[in-house]
Write a structure and sequence with these properties.
about 375 residues; alpha/beta; Rossmann fold; 3 domains; five-stranded parallel beta sheet; four-stranded parallel beta sheet; 15 helices; disordered N terminus; binds 1,3-dihydroxyacetonephosphate; binds iron/sulfur cluster
């Protein structure tokens, strides 16, 4: 089990440089902001008056700078709660964020998530400025495979279409035929199998094994996999499930599809973060346990205050790199490291595979 206390909010606020400067908030404005944060769900999550005051000094400035710069802040559900509830304009899973970023009319996207998500936004919106407040926020899956690895897999499996998880670099996306997310992988792979006896899915091996089981396909012969794993989801203990069921009678256990097949076989529901939230919303149970990154459980507690949640989660060190101070800094004075750009030729090829995902996930095209 991990520590579920609210993450600390840093004390210092760096002064804004002249380029994107806004006046200091009055004490009345800060009080109002603090009350807004408290009622957003942060008080429920354990933020004390001091935490709320520190957060308010940052969120007030961020929200003011956002307007000044015509910026939008997407936040992945694994982000810190003060980001999701204090400054994010939209909150969602990887699929929803990719769509919303593409549709946004804002000039600048300040992506509160990890690099592959910001890159996807840059791929879909080459004319927008895309900023990643925590430039080191990577992903163990995206780092597990290169474009050269994909080319090798394609040469070894001629004719097999490549479905790449969205948790990949822009270069890997450019080599794929279609991108998938946890929200649509089974559906899209099903459509690929209708046309081809063999499909390549990369880089998440555990998710690939779950997909093979769901689709009744043989790993290796029919579904070719890579050996990447998510450092958050590959460590959950399948054997602990029985113990939790005894301790919390009637508990509904939901697991992310990046967990091991041993674990997903022992739970009540398997899906992406968006599917898990929808399941909690639509069902009634005495307890819910969300086997995934801790951010989802915190968000669920604020969205469904009358439901009870049992904690079994892990923190993603990449997702937790973004904090309010980093977001403010990116808006005030974006450093070259925070700017996310994708070379035009790579972006053009990657865009085709991301757009293919939108078409196949939403049934707007025949294969
Ligand atoms: P989803 O929110 O799309 O389920 O993705 C989970 C994840 O691991 C993102 O890094
Ligand atoms: Fe990557 Fe796993 Fe972190 Fe998501 S939770 S960003 S898949 S390491």
């Amino acid at each position: 089990m991990t520590d579920s206390r609210p993450p600390a909010v840093r004390k210092s606020v760096r002064p804004a440089p002249a380029e994107f400067s806004i006046p200091q908030a009055t004490s009345a404005q800060l009080k109002e902001e603090q009350a807004r944060l408290a009622s957003s769900g942060l008080a429920e999550l354990g933020f004390c008056t001091k935490d709320l005051a520190r957060a308010a000094a940052l969120t007030w400035r961020i929200n003011a700078l956002k307007k000044l710069r015509d910026a939008v802040i997407p936040g992945h559900v694994y982000q810190r709660p003060e980001i999701l509830l204090g400054v994010a304009d939209f909150v969602g899973d990887s699929y929803q964020l990719a769509k919303l970023c593409a549709e946004s009319k804002a000039k600048t996207i300040v992506f509160c998530g990890v690099r592959f998500m910001a890159e996807t936004a840059a791929i879909l919106s080459p004319d927008k400025e895309v900023l990643l407040p925590a430039p080191a926020a990577g992903c163990s899956l995206a780092e597990s495979i290169t474009a050269a690895d994909v080319r090798r897999l394609k040469a070894e499996n001629p004719g097999a279409p490549v479905a790449a998880y969205i948790n990949t670099t822009a270069e890997v996306k450019a080599e794929a035929d279609v991108i998938v997310t946890s929200a649509n992988a089974a559906r899209i792979l099903g459509r690929l199998f209708a046309k081809s006896p063999r499909v390549i899915f990369l880089p998440d091996e555990l998710m690939g094994r779950n997909l093979a089981a769901a689709l009744g396909k043989k790993v290796g012969d029919e579904l070719v996999l890579w050996k990447g794993t998510c450092i958050v989801h590959d460590h959950f203990d399948a054997f602990a499930m029985a113990l939790y069921r005894k301790t919390y009678p009637g508990v509904r256990i939901l697991a992310h599809t990046e967990c091991s097949p041993e674990l997903t076989a022992a739970v009540d529901f398997v899906g992406g973060t968006g599917d898990m939230m929808a399941y909690v919303e639509k069902t009634r149970a005495p307890f819910y346990m969300l086997v995934t990154e801790c951010g989802l459980g915190e968000l669920a507690r604020t969205r469904f205050p009358h439901k009870r949640f049992v904690f079994m989660c892990r923190l993603c060190p990449h997702m937790k790199l973004t904090d309010l101070t980093a977001v403010l800094r990116a808006l005030e004075s974006p450093s070259p490291a925070t700017r996310v750009t994708v070379p035009a030729e790579v972006a053009a090829r990657a865009r085709l595979s991301v757009k293919r995902m939108f078409e196949l996930a939403e049934d707007t095209v025949k294969l």
